[in-house]
Amino acid sequence: LPGNMDRHHYEMFTKFGDDGFLLHLDNARGFGRHSHDEISILAPLSQCCIIKRTTLLRLQLLAEPEYRLSAVMRESLLQDPLAPVLTEPHLLALDRRLQLVLAAVGKCIDTFGEGSVVANDTAQPQSPAAHRAKLDT
């Protein structure tokens, strides 16, 4: 959604051997160019065609007029001492890119069906006792 192409790689801090850790570097252009939507970022979604139900529901909520992503971001950034953190075109780009993500999910659902694309991560796992009860009947 931010359009940050730099998130496709990482570095390892290995000065202490096996106790190293990941570093994400180069966030100078963290929100990319507001006028350019890099569609290749959607390749993993378009190729795998799977998304968690909770993620999809949150994205759909942020596309609703009363909870629009740009408005939520704008409001949350008002308190930042560096405000304005993002320009209006960058905020509006978030909404536009969100629609691209939802369209990619929609295409997957049209092709493979919702049951194959939307992973139900909201179901409560059954307890072992519930499983045993089914075996006893």
Task: Describe what you observe in this structure.
Keywords: ATP-binding, Disulfide bond, Glycoprotein, Golgi apparatus, Kinase, Manganese, Metal-binding, Nucleotide-binding, Transferase. InterPro entries: FAM20, FAM20_C. This protein has a two-stranded antiparallel ribbon. It has helices at 43-48, 53-62, 69-77, 88-112, 114-117, 128-136; strands spanning 11-13, 21-23, 51-52, 118-119. The protein has a domain at 44-121. Helix 2 (53-62) crosses helix 4 and helix 3 (69-77) runs antiparallel to helix 4 (88-112). The N and C termini lie far apart (50 Å). By secondary structure, it is mainly α.
Give the overall form: globular
Approximate helicity band:
40-55%
SSE class: mainly alpha
Low-confidence stretches: none
Task: Give the mean pLDDT.
Answer: 83
What's the total helix number? 6
Strand order, biggest sheet? 1-2
Q: How many strands, what sense, and barrel or not for the largest sheet?
A: 2 strands, antiparallel
Order of helices and strands: EEHEHHHHEH
Radius of gyration, whole Å:
20 Å
Beta-strand share of residues: 5-15%
Number of strands: 4
How far apart are the first and last residues' alpha carbons, in Å?
Answer: 50 Å
InterPro entries: FAM20, FAM20_C
Organism: Dicaeum eximium
GO molecular function, one term: kinase activity
Protein name: FA20A Pseudokinase
